[in-house]
Amino acid sequence: MTFDASLAETVRTFQALGTIKPEIEKAGRLIVDTLKSGGKLLIGGNGGSSAEAAHFATELVGRYAKTRRPLPAVALSSDGSLVTCLHEAKKLGLSSIAFLGRGGGKTKGLATVDLVIPGASGAAAQEAHLFLIHHFCELIDEAF
Q1: For the segment 11-31, what is each residue's pLDDT rounded down to a tens digit?
Q2: What is the DSSP string of 116-136?
Q3: Dist. CA 33–CA 39, nearest whole Å
C-alpha cells in the first residue's frame, strides 16, 4: 500500500468514529464511573493491542496531561495467561470494554461495551484505539 493510500484509509477510519459515538460515550462513562467508585481497570489485548493496553495502564498509574493521583489499573497483557479474560469477565458479571476492529471477530458481544472501529484496516483500527485511549485519558484527567 502506498503512503497516500494508507493515509487515506486512516483518515477514513478516524472520520468514521462518529458512527460509534454512543458506544464511545458509554465507554467513557463506564471508565470514569469505575474509577470514581474505587474500582480498578483491568486492561487487556493481544498482539499489538497488548502494547496499547500497557500504554493505557501506564497513563493511569502515572500521569497523562496533568498531575493527579495514581489511578488503579493493570495491563493484563503483561501476563500472557490473562489475555483471554473476556469470557471470564462476562461470567463474573464484570463491566468490560472491548476495543475491536474488522467487524469485531469472535470477541464481539462478550464485553459490556464493544468499540468496533469501522473499516477493514487492522492498522487503522489500532491507530483509532490509541486515539480513543487518549480521549478517555482526557476524560479521566477532567474527572480527577
Answers
A1: 999 999 999 999 999 999 999
A2: E-SSS-HHHHHHHHHHHHHHH
A3: 8
Residue 139's alpha-carbon distances to 49, 59, 94, 105, in angstroms, are: 21, 12, 21, 28
Residue 19, class by beta-carbon neighbours within 10 Å (0-12 exposed, 13-18 middle, 19+ buried)? exposed
> Which CATH number describes the domain made up of 38-143?
3.40.50.10490
Return the pLDDT at 105.
87
Give 12's contacts (C-beta < 8 A, 6+ positions apart).
119, 124
Parse the chain into domains and list their residue ranges: 38-143
Q: Which range is most confident: 19-23, 97-101, 119-123? A: 19-23
Q: How much is the pTM?
A: 0.91
- Residue 74's H or E segment, with its range, is strand 73-75
Cα dist. 61→18, 56, 131 in Å? Answer: 29, 9, 19
Nearest CA to 45 out of 105, 121, 93 is that of: 105
